[in-house]
TrEMBL record:
Location in or out of the cell: Cell membrane
Any one Pfam family match given in the protein's UniProt record, by short name: BPD_transp_1_N
Family to which this protein belongs: Belongs to the binding-protein-dependent transport system permease family.
Name of the molecule in the record: ABC transporter permease
Transmembrane segments: 12-36, 111-132, 144-167, 205-228, 271-293, 313-336
Keyword Cytoplasm found: no
Highest taxon of source: Bacteria
Domain ABC transmembrane type-1: 105-336
UniProt keyword annotations, A-Z: Cell membrane, Membrane, Transmembrane, Transmembrane helix, Transport
Organism: Devosia rhodophyticola
Principal place of residence: membrane
UniProt feature coiled coil, ranges: none
Bilayer disposition of the protein: Multi-pass membrane protein
Length: 344
């Protein structure tokens, strides 16, 4: 008869397995970004020395970058540099890529977080209502709204939104984080313009920033709403068909208690994963919105670096977004196991 594994040892094994999974995933992500940098038809040496540089200068820089070494050795050196926090130097800004990422990422985090909040606040109730009135007109209306959010390209919605609400109606401010004459006024503390302007007591800049981020945040919120409402509807349909819902109704519970107190409460556990994936999707898909609205975030940084053939910056930004996505997936898994003991 086998002896049961002690809980402490089982916990250590679980943590070790989780850390090993994270490490393998991050190494795979680093390998993927490294290969992308080698496959893209951009010559980093020409980007540094210029097309008119003599061959001797080209050869010297080629050797300094280590491009003459075998591919596996280049990857090992790339991985070792990443572990030291060295993402290389950006040719566009002439600063370390890690410094640029720390400057630009908070703006993306701020905009994506607002979009996620809007997606949760409106998407979850819409999904619940769609499931409750299944195959009735509210269900069809909500599904059409979600379908538009899924089908219409977000860059097209951004351009139309700018034309209608900024150019024609003047309800919101245009591209940028703040107006030009407000740039550089607020000290850079957290990287979030709303938090930094609040800490500095610059409330005029705060409301100017709110006006600038209203339209891009609403578009990201709509994109998130489409996914969250659809998944909430699917989970709620499953919960509303369970026997405990019928039992609660037979006991005389009100519809509000049945839907919110019982079905939505049980549906909240799988929705944790849905919200985490939606957040990762916003961080990953903010490139187009940030480019259209000239938002100084990581997406706009990657876009401008790509057109400038600055591969160190492109790979660093891609790796950062990938790491954020992996972290959110792992966090959702931990929360799921914490909230639902059956999944442990």
């Amino acid at each position: 008869m086998t002896r049961p594994v002690p809980p402490a040892l089982r916990f250590v094994f679980g943590i070790g397995s989780w850390l090993l999974t994270v490490a393998i995933t991050l190494v795979g992500l680093a390998a993927l970004t490294f290969l992308i940098g080698r496959v893209v038809p951009i010559d980093p040496v020409l980007r540094i020395v210029g097309e008119k540089a003599p061959q001797s200068v080209y050869d010297r820089v080629f050797l300094e970058l280590g491009l003459n070494k075998p591919l596996y050795q280049q990857f090992w050196e790339y991985l070792a540099a990443l572990l030291r926090g060295d993402f290389g130097t950006s040719f566009s800004t002439t600063r370390p890529v890690l410094t640029d990422l720390l400057d630009f990422f908070p703006a993306t985090l701020e905009l994506s977080s607002l979009g996620l909040v809007l997606g949760i606040v409106f998407g979850v109730p819409m999904g619940v209502a769609s499931a409750y009135w299944h195959e009735k007109w509210p269900d069809h209306l909500i599904r059409v709204i979600g379908l538009i959010g899924y089908s219409v390209p977000i860059f097209w919605l951004g351009l139309v939104g700018l034309f209608v609400f900024y150019f024609k109606l003047g309800w919101v401010s245009g591209p940028g984080q703040v107006d030009v004459f407000f740039q550089g006024v607020v000290p850079h503390v957290t990287g979030s313009i709303l938090i930094d302007s609040s800490l500095a007591g610059e409330w005029e800049i705060f409301w100017n920033a709110v006006s600038h981020m209203t339209l891009p945040a609403l578009l990201l919120g709509y994109y998130s709403l489409a996914y969250i409402s659809r998944m909430t509807r699917s989970v709620m349909l499953d919960q509303l068909s369970r026997e405990y819902v019928l039992t609660a109704r037979l006991k005389g519970a009100s519809e509000l208690q049945v839907v919110v107190g019982h079905a939505l409460r049980n549906a909240a556990i799988p929705l944790v994963t849905v919200v985490a994936l939606s957040y990762g999707g916003l961080l990953e898909g903010s490139v187009l919105i940030e480019t259209i609205f000239s938002w100084p975030g990581i997406g706009n940084y990657i876009y401008s670096s790509l057109f400038a053939a600055d591969m160190n910056a492109v790979l660093g930004g891609t790796l950062l977004v990938g790491c954020a996505f992996v972290f959110l997936n792992m966090l959702s898994d931990v929360l799921y196991r914490t909230l639902d003991p059956r999944s442990r």
